[in-house]
């Protein structure tokens, strides 16, 4: 996504710097959440809990919510920059590629935003062991949506060559 927006803006280093900085903030938030070890009790005895997700304290849950918020921030910036470029490219004759990018980007953004907001709310509002319940589905949906974007761009390239 970052490479696509960077290309839309004719390899403007300011755009790349902004996106990389926001991405690094997200990575930093992830590292903080991943390395945080709280001594706060979860309220559930470890031997009475079965399942794939790890128990998460309320403090650690807030770190994980911030991590997902960082990802949501990057997606919002990418979508906003893509939308801004589409508005300015209407008169440049690049409408078909930009329209496809906006359509797929809007679908991606809508799905990922809805799932991320639900995931953040789950981390902040639910009790253990349900806090991390949407983490894996969010990751899977993100991979599916990115694959859809790439396949549609490949189809458009094939249409333009033929």
Number of helices: 5
What is the chains' assembly state? single chain
Instruction: Please state the CA-atom Rg, rounded to the nearest Å.
Output: 19 Å
* Proportion in helices: over 70%
Feature tags:
0% strand, 74% helix, 162 residues, mainly alpha
Nutshell version of this structure?
By secondary structure, this protein is mostly helical.
Task: Give a written overview of the molecule.
The protein is an all-alpha fold and 162 residues long. The protein contains 5 helices and no strands. α4 packs antiparallel against α5. 22% of the residues are buried.
Topology summary:
Layout: H1 2-8, H2 13-35, H3 58-89, H4 95-125, H5 135-161
Helix pairs in contact: 1-2, 2-3, 3-4, 4-5
């Amino acid at each position: 996504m970052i490479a696509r927006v960077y290309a839309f803006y004719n390899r403007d280093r300011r755009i790349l710097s902004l996106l990389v900085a926001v991405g690094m903030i997200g990575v930093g938030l992830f590292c903080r959440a991943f390395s945080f070890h709280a001594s706060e009790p979860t309220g559930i005895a470890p031997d009475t809990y079965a399942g794939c997700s790890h128990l998460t304290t309320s403090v650690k849950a807030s770190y994980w919510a911030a991590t997902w918020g960082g990802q949501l921030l990057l997606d919002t910036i990418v979508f906003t920059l893509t939308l801004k470029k589409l508005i300015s490219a209407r008169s440049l004759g690049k409408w078909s590629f930009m329209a496809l990018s906006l359509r797929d980007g809007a679908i991606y953004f809508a799905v990922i935003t809805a799932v991320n907001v639900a995931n953040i709310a789950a981390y902040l509002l639910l009790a253990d062991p349900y806090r991390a319940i949407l983490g894996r589905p969010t990751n899977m949906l993100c991979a599916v949506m990115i694959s859809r974007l790439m396949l549609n761009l490949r189809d458009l390239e094939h249409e333009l060559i033929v």
